[in-house]
From TrEMBL:
Organism: Sistotremastrum suecicum HHB10207 ss-3
A Pfam family matched in the record: UstYa
Protein name: Uncharacterized protein
Keyword Nuclease among UniProt keywords: no
Keyword Oxidoreductase annotated: yes
GO biological process: mycotoxin biosynthetic process
GO molecular function: oxidoreductase activity
Length: 203
């Protein structure tokens, strides 16, 4: 009996090794196959949570910028310069479905709040003000940014607009602008091509 056990032991070990290798290979194929098959219809809620781009970290200097303050006569122009040609929207999917990009929505809200402070009697701006204060409040809580900052902002010389409060690591916002510019060009080219094709068929 002992002799038989010794005789079968190598075969059992080899079988177990082969079984493990097979399971690992199957898991690998299943995992990578699932990843490769990820696609979206862009109908209803079937779309990705974020833009399909890589955003690298960058360093940003925080300072007191007077041109975006409500008291600055050209603050509206400066805020307008932050809006891409797409108006902050991008088009995705086979039918070029429109989506708002959160970063541009946030900047739009800051601009709306800035305008509302200039024209508090405007019903339109008052509605924007209410929406935007709630939207930004929830975004701040959602991001739960735990970066440590010096707590002495008011001790800085706020009249010195070149005075840097601190530097911190951020996400490269230019990647979103670049994607937006490319996306609007592609969408307009698609729309022009379809319009030309439809016109030629109609004639």
């Amino acid at each position: 009996m002992k002799h038989l056990r010794k005789q079968w032991r190598p075969a059992i070990l080899i079988s177990l090794c082969l079984l493990n290798i097979g399971l690992v290979a199957r898991t690998y194929r299943s995992y990578h196959g699932t990843r490769a098959k990820i696609s979206y219809s862009y109908i209803g809620n079937d779309y990705p949570m974020t833009l399909p781009i890589k955003i690298d970290p960058v360093e940003m200097s925080f300072y007191h910028s007077v041109q975006y303050t409500p008291s600055h006569p050209d603050s509206g122009t400066h805020f307008d310069s932050l809006v891409p040609r797409s108006g902050g929207f991008i088009r995705l999917g086979p039918d070029w479905r429109a989506f708002s990009v959160a970063m541009f929505h946030e900047l739009h809200c800051l601009f709306a709040i800035n305008r509302a402070l200039h024209d508090p009697e405007s019903t339109y701006l008052r509605g924007h003000f209410t929406h935007c204060t709630n939207y930004l409040r929830q975004l701040f809580l959602c991001s739960a940014d735990h970066t440590l900052e010096p707590g002495d902002f008011m001790s800085n010389n706020l009249s010195d607009h070149s005075n840097i409060f601190f530097n911190r690591q951020c996400r490269d916002w230019s990647a979103i602008y670049d994607f937006s510019e490319t996306n609007i060009d592609e969408f307009r080219a698609f729309r022009t091509l379809n319009y030309s094709s439809a016109s030629s068929h109609a004639s």
